[in-house]
């Protein structure tokens, strides 16, 4: 899978964040907000993928954070993280604020999607999707939302410190399609899979309802049978 890595160094000496990386798959899909951190005890750099605050809690009641996206296989994780750190070291050694590494293979990345439709009162979220790139990298928390006129796909985003003209917080996508062609292809596949899974779910619910109705009818017939006298022995 073709991808390029772009790294920016963080100049501030406070904190353990040393830089941020952006990865682009096949010139078509961008992953942002990948942090390059330093372990202060070991003085060792490591890569942290963008994360989001989940509704789950750990044993101590603390908030559990989950990766928005991450490599699936050990091999690709090691390859990608090593290349990100190599790009960062190149920035440091060259005295530049930015650095880039590119690995070339295919142009547009291969992908597959999985969608879970659901309904929730008072929410415009109609489903959640996962995107798998070349069975090596996964993007979680992709939403199918109900707009004013139609459904649309929303990529995972984070809340920025900026506000719009109406005073509302501005959200920035963590990862997203770069080109119009790939966006249409990706979003089209997500919506197609959503409709297919929604239809399957409706059929399953219909079958379950029919089965329950049959059981209810059988139970009613059994209860309506006339009482018969049981002969004494």
Automatic annotation (TrEMBL):
PANTHER family: SEPTATION PROTEIN SPOVG-RELATED. InterPro entries: SpoVG, SpoVG_sf. It comes from the Bacteria. The keyword DNA-binding applies. GO terms for molecular function: DNA binding. This is DNA-binding protein SpoVG, cell septation regulator. Residues 195-219 have a biased composition (Basic and acidic residues). Residues 195-233 are annotated as: Disordered. Keywords: Cell cycle, Cell division, DNA-binding, Septation.
């Amino acid at each position: 899978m073709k991808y390029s890595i772009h790294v920016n160094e963080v100049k501030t000496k406070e904190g353990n964040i040393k830089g941020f990386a952006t990865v682009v798959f096949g010139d078509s899909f961008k992953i942002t907000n990948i942090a390059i951190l330093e372990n202060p005890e070991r003085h060792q750099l490591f890569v942290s993928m963008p994360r989001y605050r989940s509704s789950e809690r750990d044993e101590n009641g603390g908030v559990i954070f989950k990766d928005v996206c991450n490599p699936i296989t050990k091999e690709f994780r090691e390859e990608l993280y090593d290349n990100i750190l190599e790009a960062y070291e190149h920035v440091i050694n060259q005295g530049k604020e930015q650095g880039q590494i590119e690995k070339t293979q295919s142009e547009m990345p291969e992908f597959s999607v999985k969608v879970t439709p659901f309904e929730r009162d008072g929410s415009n979220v109609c489903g959640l999707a996962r995107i798998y790139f070349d069975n090596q990298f996964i993007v979680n928390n992709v939403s199918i939302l109900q707009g004013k006129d139609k459904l649309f796909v929303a990529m995972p985003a984070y809340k920025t410190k900026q506000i719009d003209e109406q005073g509302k917080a501005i959200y920035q996508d963590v990862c997203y399609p770069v080109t119009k062609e790939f966006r249409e292809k990706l979003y089209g596949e997500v919506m197609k899979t959503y409709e297919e899974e929604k239809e399957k779910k409706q059929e399953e619910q219909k079958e379950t309802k029919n089965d329950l109705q049959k059981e209810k009818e059988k139970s009613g017939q059994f209860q309506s049978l006339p009482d018969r006298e049981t002969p004494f022995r």
